[in-house]
Amino acid sequence: MLIRLIALIGITLALLLPSGAHAERVRDLGTFQGVRSNQLTGYGIVVGLAGTGDDSLEYVTQAMRGVSGRVGVQLPAGINPSLKNAAAVMITADLPAFAKPGQRIDVTVSALGKAKSLRGGALILSPLYGADGQIYAMAQGNLAVGGLGISGADGSKLTVNVPTVGRIADGASVERAVATGFDSGDTLRWNLFQSDFLTAARVRDAVNRQFPGTASVEDGVTLALRLPAGADARASVMAAIEMLDVTPAETPARVIVNSRTGTVVINNAVRLSPAAISHGKLTVRIDEKPQVVQPAPFSQGQTAVQQDSQLSAEEEGRKVALFKPGASLAKLVDALNLLGVSPSDLVAILEALKQAGALKAEMVVI
Fold first, then answer.
1. Distance between CA 114 and CA 52 in Å, rounded?
2. pLDDT tens digits, residue range 3-38?
3. Within a 10 A sphere around the Cβ of 72, how many other Cβ atoms?
4. Which of 105, 187, 202, 339 ranks highest by number of CB atoms within 10 Å?
5. Where are the beta strands (DSSP E) in 153-228?
6. What number of other Cβ atoms are within 10 A of residue 96's Cβ?
């Protein structure tokens, strides 16, 4: 029984100990240049709303005239239809890499004007454009809206989530493919998600161990890969490269401060030089208790007010935390918890340590 208990304690301690550097797949560290998605945008009209549309806004009327003209219906000149059941919308979508004509992609539809809700609406056939101004997809379909907005006759309103944004699953059909160029040229470039010379060198070494003479480093982000010609052979090598295991370099020491929420995040690479921190609050309190003084009887005096001020001063948190050279994140957190600091005080302490040269980390305020 004692042996089992000792073994259980040993396993628990092993699990609690911080693990060393771990390997990651190449596909999780970066991506091949050109093999990426492209953003599409478009303008359209949503119809079939239950009186929650844009009403008679001019740009909605113009768009409806264009839609009606495409189906052979011409609105009379000088007539301004009341379009409470229609709304002008912006349409956005991501065109995946290697998407081919006929494939379907999801689209997001967002109200552009004063429409109160898009619930129950249907998007009329609308083109989606790329950055080059060419049409790459056509969108149409019924919206799925997760929000709800209602209003009463007395002006009261109730809104749940966002009723002016909807989504159409498989709502667009791809009409044009985007050339990636991965199968042309002698060299294909691979880019790290985050610049790091050591990680780039380790990826190069891992690729060259598997495919000698294939990879070379161009800079802290890019590797040049000399791959075989032809889509089939090149795709096989790219797939093998993506599955290679590489141990990335340790992340730089960094402290992230969110000035709006008071959130402070400190990564494990942060170290401290010898420093002492004293944190305390001095509270000065002044209590005014004026007293009314009455004159003696028959003295013909006047009632006066006598001031009575009471002063007090209190200091809390009179503790000092001393850091030895190379103090880690764990010791920093333990010491700051001992001092009982709030998030706002923590930011002030970290800034003071940075100014004193004791905090070896980059501070990022977001």
1. 9
2. 443 344 344 434 444 444 577 888 899 988 888 889
3. 6
4. 105
5. 157-160, 165-174, 187-192, 215-217, 222-226
6. 14
Which segments in the chain show pLDDT lower than 50?
Answer: 1-20, 282-284, 313
Phi, psi of 155 (to 5 degrees): 95, -5
- DSSP assigned state of 221: S
Output the CA torsion 98→102→103→107 (10° steps): 110
Q: How many Cα atoms are found within 13 Å in the side-chain-facing hemisphere of 211?
A: 19
pLDDT in tens, 154-183: 556 666 677 889 999 999 999 998 887 777
Q: Helices (H), strands (E): how many in the chain?
A: 6, 23
Burial code (b: 16+ CB inside 10 Å, e: under 16) for 123-134 equals bbebbbbbeeee
What DSSP string describes 306-329?
E--EEEEEEEEEEEEEEE-TTB-H
**Hey, which residues does 257 pair with through a beta bridge?**
264, 365
Contact between 105 and 172 (Cβ < 8 Å):
yes
- pLDDT score for 108: 94
Q: In what order do the strands lie in the sheet with 187-192?
A: 30-32, 187-192, 222-226, 215-217
Pick the closest to residue 50 from 85, 89, 98 (CA basis): 85
Q: Show the tokens assigned to 269.
A: 């690479």
Range 210-235 burial, b when 16+ CB lie within 10 A, else e: ebeebbeeeeebbbbbebeeeeeebe
Can you tell me the distance from the alpha carbon of 145 to that of 167, in angstroms, rounded to the nearest whole number? Answer: 7
End-to-end alpha carbon distance in the chain: 54
- Tell which residue, 195, 191, 198, has the closest CA to residue 247: 198
The reported pTM is 0.64
User: Which residue is listed with tokens 């089939």?
Assistant: 232
Output the CA torsion sign for 236, 174, 90, 119. negative
The two tokens of residue 119 are 């619930």
Average pLDDT, rounded, for the chain: 76
Which is nearest to 177 in space by CA: 38, 33, 31, 32?
38
Q: How far apart are CA 90 and CA 164, in angstroms?
A: 11
